[in-house]
Design a protein that fits this description.
Pfam family, one: CH
Helix content: 40-55%
Shape: globular
Radius of gyration: 24 Å
Strand content: under 5%
GO cellular component, one term: cytoplasm
Organism: Papio anubis (Olive baboon)
Structural class: mainly alpha
Main location: cytoplasm
Number of strands: 0
Subcellular location: Cytoplasm
Largest sheet: none
């Protein structure tokens, strides 16, 4: 039976399915894409062009690593740009991947933490474009937080990194935090050993 066209692409809408959950966790965000595209153009200048809308367009735009390299370079003063950008965009796959890897290294040196970094294949094979967005968001947040004159664009596009919040914890609060974790570890250890027999002792089978 053919579904009417307006229903054909709507899946069943039941509660919080696993699929919905994973979309929330890993979702490629089209609104975020718009913000990131605007920022990259403002930050690098109009010669980087503009991608087609959507995940694929965004991937194709960034895939050879040149725009990403220009982006991270734009956050540094002249004379200390971390990534060499070739005159002509690389066409060979390994050169493109190398360019992306250079961007990732420079982003990490800039301060993006490992858990916010995408892997080259996430971008190159489009495996996880949400991770690419996460890296760019982290980079933008750092640039706004550093406030060293190299960030261009609206500072409200990114949330400042919460560096300043660290100072708000008192020593006793930090100690309390350690204590809570310690307790949890303790209870986990107790729980995992329950019901285990010692090594070498036969298990009792009650018939």
């Amino acid at each position: 039976m053919m579904l009417p066209p307006n229903m054909a692409n709507k899946g069943p809408s039941y509660g919080m399915s696993r699929e919905v959950q994973s979309k929330i966790e890993k979702k490629y965000d089209e609104e975020l894409e718009e913000r990131l595209v605007e920022w990259i153009i403002v930050q690098c200048g109009p010669d980087v062009g503009r991608p087609d809308r959507g995940r694929l367009g965004f991937q194709v735009w960034l895939k050879n690593g040149v725009i990403l390299s220009k982006l991270v370079n734009s956050l540094y003063p002249d004379g200390s740009k971390p990534v060499k950008v070739p005159e002509n965009p690389p066409s060979m796959v390994f050169k493109q991947m190398e360019q992306v890897a250079q961007f990732l290294k420079a982003a990490e040196d800039y301060g993006v933490i490992k858990t916010d970094m995408f892997q080259t294949v996430d971008l190159f094979e489009g495996k996880d474009m949400a991770a690419v967005q996460r890296t760019l968001m982290a980079l933008g947040s750092l640039a706004v937080t550093k406030n060293d004159g190299h960030y261009r664009g609206d500072p409200n596009w990114f949330m400042k990194k919460a560096q300043e919040h660290k100072r708000e914890f008192t020593e006793s609060q930090l100690q309390e935090g350690k204590h809570v974790i310690g307790l949890q570890m303790g209870t986990n250890r107790g729980a995992s050993q329950a019901g285990m027999t010692g090594y070498g002792r036969p298990r009792q089978i009650i018939s």
